[in-house]
Design brief:
By secondary structure, this protein is α/β, with parallel strands linked by helices. It folds into two domains: 2-69, no CATH class; 73-188, Metalloproteases ("zincins"), catalytic domain (Zincin-like, 2-Layer Sandwich), CATH 3.30.2010. Helix content is 44%, strand content 22%. It is built from six helices and nine strands. Strands 1-2-4-3 form a four-stranded mixed β-sheet, covered by helices on one side. Helix 3 packs across helix 4 (138-150) and helix 4 (138-150) packs across helix 5 (159-168). It is globular and about 50 Å long. The protein starts with a strand and ends with a strand.
């Protein structure tokens, strides 16, 4: 389901078993609201109004970063394939290294191109990583691996989770900020 609202962006609503509302900018001009089943459209609209300033600031920032003058890197399908092969070679050893240091186990590792995520961890311990991680600095790649492995202990983003991340990556806040500000410059065409 999607509809247009006043600030010239499109809203997509994804409903699931979650308990709270979530908001993300999926790509320039597209806002995704993640909502619990049964939550009224009126409540979702109210949530969007409450987040209007945040949306305006971030939609503007993302639009500017996708401007040709911003240095956005456009990646071809052929390059994406090469990055996928490189990621399959480099990410699993990195996961193995950090899992050993952190004392956690994991299931299978999948590499793919994900539009909105750098990595994810399922409840079963399976890890997914974005092949575009091959374009970021090594310390950022390691942060993403540590972040996903920390979910093997805490399947949330609680204080306890961030404490685990910080234990293995004391610079995680700077790495997280880098991904937020610089990561959006990689586009696939």
């Amino acid at each position: 389901m999607g509809y247009d609202v006043s600030m010239n962006y499109r809203v997509e609503i994804i409903r699931s078993k979650r308990k709270s509302l979530g908001l993300e900018i999926s790509r320039p001009g597209l806002v995704t609201v993640r909502a619990p089943y049964g939550l009224s459209e009126k409540r979702i609209e109210k949530f969007l109004v409450e987040k209007e300033l945040w949306l305006y600031e971030n939609l503007e920032r993302i639009a500017k970063s996708h401007d040709a003058s911003s240095g956005a890197q456009i990646i071809s399908g052929e390059e994406l394939q090469r990055l996928g092969k490189e990621a399959v070679e480099k990410i699993p050893p990195l996961v193995e290294k950090w899992a050993g240091k952190m004392g956690v186990s994991y299931g299978r590792i999948t590499i793919r191109h994900q539009k909105t995520r750098w990595g994810s961890c399922s409840g079963a311990g399976n890890l997914n990583f974005n092949c575009l991680l091959m374009l970021v600095p090594q310390e950022i790649r390691e942060y993403v691996v540590i972040h996903e492995l920390a979910h093997r202990v805490e399947m949330n983003h609680s204080k306890a989770f961030w404490k685990i991340v910080e234990e293995y990556d004391p610079e995680y806040e700077a790495h997280r900020k880098w991904l937020k500000n610089e990561g959006i410059k990689f586009r696939v065409e």
